[in-house]
Amino acid sequence: MATERGRGEQARERRRAQIRERREQARTQAREFGLSEAAAERAERSSFERGERAKAGQSTGASALTRSRARLDLPRAARRRLLPEYDPEAFGRLSERVARFLGTGRFIVWMTVVIIVWVLWNIFAPEHLRFDQYPFIFLTLMLSLQASYAAPLILLAQNRQDDRDRVNLEQDRKQNERSLADTEYLTREIAALRMGLGEVATRDWIRSEFQDLIKEMDERRLFPAESDEGDR
Fold first, then answer.
1. d(C-alpha 174, C-alpha 196), whole Å
2. Cβ–Cβ < 8 Å for 122, 136
3. What is the dihedral of CA 188, 190, 192, 198, to 10 degrees?
4. Using CA atoms in the order 85, 89, 95, 99, what is the torsion angle rounded to 10 degrees?
5. Dihedrals phi, psi of 201, to nearest 5 degrees
6. Tell me: the pLDDT tens digits for 9-42?
7. What's 178-213 look like in SS3?
8. Which of 35, 48, 94, 168 lies 20 to 30 Å from 186, alpha-carbon distance?
9. Kindly report the CA angle at 67 between 63 and 70, in degrees rounded to 5?
């Protein structure tokens, strides 16, 4: 505490010394320019107020900047929520399992067995052991509760399946577009190769040309006089 008080006293002394220096500077400037002491004091007071306002603005701007500046390398703090948090993906998988089980014959058999046992017990059991007598209101309530939960779970599972089907259809469409583009490219390349090969001498064509040439040479050997006359 004593050290803090000493620091405060030193700061106040420095401030007073600065004020006295500013007053002396203002008086010397007033003497140089021929102004009165009242005008010098007014000028000194206005300059002092401007300096104080500038310091206050800098301090408030710095504080606002520090307040508005957020650490980008740190995650945000978790906000408190009134509703309980849950994992939508896990809940969706659970709904699909429930919907898949509700759509099987095992569920129908088990539900039928439970209802029959429930009804028989509450009809033929001793009076003090019956927990849901006719008209079986508790059984009706349980079946209604089961139906009220099963319907949204089945709808949720159907929505997830629709989303998967939509994604698969989009991927199939893109794959078909790529396959069509590749097929068109190969078709153009094959057509270009055919056009290029149409002007290339093949082995069969060269063989036929040689055969024709050999036949012509043999004919000239057998009939040289006729060939000479024909040439003339």
1. 33
2. yes
3. -150
4. 170
5. -75, 120
6. 777 787 777 777 777 776 676 666 555 555 556 6
7. HHHHHHHHHHHHHHHHHHHHHCCCCHHHHHHHHHHH
8. 168
9. 140
Helix or strand run (H / E) with residue 230: helix 224-231
pTM, to two decimals: 0.43
Nearest-10 Cα torsion for 74, 75, 78, 79 = 90
Q: How far apart are CA 161 and CA 95, in angstroms?
A: 11
Alpha-carbon gap, residue 123 to 135, rounded angstroms: 10
- Least confident window among 77-91, 94-108, 140-154, 166-180: 77-91
At 140, the amino acid letter reads: T
Contact between 27 and 45 under an 8 Å Cβ cutoff? The reply is no
Q: How far apart are the first and last CA of the chain?
A: 138
